[in-house]
Design goal:
It catalyses: L-histidinol phosphate + 2-oxoglutarate = 3-(imidazol-4-yl)-2-oxopropyl phosphate + L-glutamate. This protein is an alpha/beta fold and about 375 residues long. The chain is about 40% helix and about 15% strand. The protein binds pyridoxal-5'-phosphate (PLP). The site of pyridoxal-5'-phosphate (PLP) has 14 residues, from helix 6.
């Protein structure tokens, strides 16, 4: 019986709800028989990896390196990351996606006698790792719907909650946040960092950093030298177009990188992923083009949606949270039937909203046409 076999499973895991990812295109085709579907559900780069990355991967397969274990230290990639950020190699941790970094942090810093602190409507993985580690969650209420950053993080609330909960070991900040797309002012982040006791780790998730207006970005690199309890992470899954290969990395103090390294799987990045990330990092023109497409289309899509009377949260990322003023489930279903996969965010306590990734111009047009049809029905 399942009941008996799971008797010794961690209590946090037993009460856990698994992460629900955006639906793969194949699954929609299987379920509804819709062909020609497009996926705007997981915030991938609609241009995919750059031509240089594709060529490097093809050449590597031809050389047949795959029987050997990858470089477990990721030395070549780390050297490029070190140069990009002007940081020492031993302050970099590579992850199998930045999800892996979140997981490593949880394993090191969370347990039954500890708490993690994060915002309502924040990235779901923070909650999953907290619960999996049987740690307590301190969820800080978000800003109001009418705030300039609707449903965004409230760092004054974070600071208060930190004072009231001495067991907090780890604070997660997503900037921009997923699924709201909201951002924090750099001076507010730094003011918060000043208030955090040194034994509390602040994990600053910058998965969408490249998509932010440069004027709104904080100098996270400088903060790392000022606040040894800060760890910042980035990913190759979004602007670099490598979501399928799973590479992310963090920058931190040497001490923090050292403890993460102790629990890291010895070969957590596969050799194709390491190679692709190295080549992608060198192709900043491609990132720039991807970001420009996103900025242009994000503005166009936002305007069109607002013109349809819908609520669009201000986004500095590569997706929009769109409010329908009613349960968004039927809209989601209608879009699926039109072959357009978007992301319901009811599990983020935003049941009236759908999250839609910014696609290519053609994909966005297709989404708008499908949405008009669904709303007219
Ligand atoms: C997409 C995303 C990540 C990145 O996940 P990977 O594991 O690097 O693919 C991290 N944080 C947030 C908030 C995200 O939305």
């Amino acid at each position: 019986m399942t009941d008996q076999t799971l008797k010794n499973a961690a209590s946090g895991v037993l009460s856990l709800e698994a992460y629900s990812p955006g639906m793969p295109i194949e699954e929609l085709q299987r379920r509804l028989g819709v062909s020609n579907a497009i996926k705007l559900a997981s915030n991938e780069n609609p241009l995919g990896p750059s031509a240089k990355v594709r060529a490097a991967l093809a050449a590597s397969v031809a050389q047949d390196n795959l029987a050997l274990y990858p470089d477990g230290s990721g030395h070549r990639l780390k050297k490029k990351i070190a140069a990009l950020h002007d940081i020492a190699l031993d302050r970099i941790t590579l992850g199998n996606g930045s999800n892996d970094i979140i997981e490593l942090l949880g394993r090191v810093f969370l347990g039954p006698d500890r708490a993690a602190l994060y915002s309502a409507h924040a990235f779901a993985v923070y909650e999953i790792i907290t619960q999996a580690q049987c740690a307590r969650a301190v969820v800080v209420p978000a800003r109001s719907a009418s705030d300039a950053q609707p449903y965004g993080h409230d760092l004054a609330g974070f600071a208060q909650a930190l004072q009231a909960n001495a067991d907090v070991a780890l604070v997660f900040i997503a900037n921009p946040n997923n699924p709201t797309g909201t951002v924090l002012a750099p001076q507010d982040i730094e003011a918060f960092l000043k208030k955090v006791p040194p034994q509390v780790i602040v994990a600053l998730d910058e998965a969408y950093y490249e998509y932010m207006d440069p004027a709104l970005r904080g100098d996270t690199r400088a903060w790392l030298d000022r606040y040894p309890n800060l760890i910042v992470f980035r990913t190759f899954s979004k602007a670099y177009g490598l979501a399928g290969l799973r590479v992310g990395y963090s920058l931190s103090s040497v001490a923090l990188a050292d403890v993460l390294n102790r629990v890291r799987q010895p070969f957590n990045n596969n050799s194709m992923a390491l190679l692709a990330a190295e080549v992608a990092l060198d192709d900043q023109d491609y990132v720039q083009r991807s970001v420009e497409l996103n900025t242009r289309e994000r503005a166009r899509l936002s305007e069109a949606l607002r013109g349809m009377g819908l609520t669009v949260l201000p986004s500095q990322a590569n997706f929009l949270a769109i409010g329908f003023g009613r349960d968004a489930k039927p809209v989601h279903q209608g879009l699926l039937e039109q072959g357009v996969i978007v992301r319901p965010i009811a599990s983020y306590q935003l049941p009236h909203y759908l999250r839609v990734s910014i696609g290519t111009e053609a994909e966005n047009d297709r989404f708008l046409a499908a949405l008009r049809k669904v709303l007219a029905a």
